[in-house]
Amino acid sequence: MDIKKNVETVTEEIEKACKKSGRVSSEVTVIAVTKYVSTERAQEAVNAGIIHLGENRAEGLESKYESIGSRAKWHFIGSLQSRKVKQVVDTITSIHSLDRMSLAKEIHKRANRKISCFVQVNVSGEESKHGLSPEEVIPFIDKIKDYDNIVVEGLMTMAPHTEEEEVLRSTFRQLRQLKEKVEAKGFSHAPCHGLSMGMSNDYQIAIEEGATHVRIGSKLVGREDQ
Ligand SMILES: *Cc1c(COP(=O)(O)O)cnc(C)c1O
């Protein structure tokens, strides 16, 4: 596994997708998802120039943070149990999986600074997926305004597992349109300029549709779990 090479390839692909859609690549934050790999590989990614790392479990985050520390910026991308918030809240730059009131309340309570959060949306409506339905998003954001340690930086979604470009594109486009609706509300606690969408198989399309944060695992660091 040549992580340096992967980083180069992904960087080139991002440049291409930006060019195609009239964007600049500095608008896109690449998060290397290290949930399937060892701390050593995560460290290799950092050595290859990766700044942002994503983990979906509190334990994975803690053990990698122990050796890598603040040389990387850490993102929590998976469903987060309320009782684990205190384990991760001091370490992370952003939480990408805010999907319920009880979690918002716990983040607010445990944080001693403002925490950047993405509200997770289940755009495709698949039962297996976490996240609020699109209709629930604005009422939810309105309701968390008193939890003032939370800043809603944007929305996050996971696209359906498919190769069909139109399905992916339409999912990402719906999230962007919803983000624009939230922005238009002018909530001071929810500037909501961010779109966390796009993974190994669909990040180019996500960028063409406006992604500001792509979460890429296997294409960057591979997998050691299979
Ligand atoms: C695992 C995971 C990713 C990365 O998946 P790849 O397909 O390996 O790029 C991105 N986002 C979330 C929420 C994940 O759980």
UniProtKB/TrEMBL annotation:
Entries under PROSITE patterns matching the protein: UPF0001
Gene3D superfamilies: Alanine racemase (3.20.20.10)
Domain of life according to the entry: Bacteria
Domain Alanine racemase N-terminal span(s) in chain numbering: 27-222
Coiled coil: none
Pfam family, one: Ala_racemase_N
Keywords (A to Z) from UniProt: Pyridoxal phosphate
Chain positions with N6-(pyridoxal phosphate)lysine modification: 35
Function comment: Pyridoxal 5'-phosphate (PLP)-binding protein, which is involved in PLP homeostasis.
Assigned protein family: Belongs to the pyridoxal phosphate-binding protein YggS/PROSC family.
HAMAP family: PLP_homeostasis
Protein name, per record: Pyridoxal phosphate homeostasis protein
Provenance organism: Pontibacillus chungwhensis
